[in-house]
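Case study 2.
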Amino acid sequence: MIINDIHFKLKDGRQALLRSPREEDIPGTIDYLRQSAGETEFIIRYPEECGIYTPELEKSVFAQKNDSPCDAMIMALVDGRVAGNCDIHFYTGIKTRHRANVSIALLKDYWSLGLGTRMIEEMIRLALARPETTQMELGFIEGNGRARRLYEKMGFRIVGFHPNAIRLKNGTLLHEYMMVKTLDRKKE
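Prediction:
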């Protein structure tokens, strides 16, 4: 699904842009994926695991999302730099088509500027545009209080967890928490 350009100001006054990924975003996206993986333990991969991200793979992922009738990826750009991205996947099975799964990540330089909030708002807008979607789902890693606060602010609540879902290099085990937002179309 193609997302039209959304321009807005960050809390620090810089201009941000949300839109569908484009081929010219590929080098910046690969850099962003590697950098974000090294900035926090709350990303699902380490930087050395990012070798799988190639221009060919990213081009394919971008095309798949842009050509999808319902799924979408949104790139967040600040001053022309890829600052983050988010993704929404709508389940299509008869028993699961009421569900949508969301993921989001931002580079540390762009935390606390309103960018994450704006990205989640856009994911909610996309979910509300599909009448059959009544539930949005996402996850966060134990200890990521910043993500948890954002998601709770946006109406998500913890519904369960995967114990010891993440094992850090030092052997530390962390839970992954699952969150759900029920879409109340009367209020949204």
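The longest strand covers residues 157-167.
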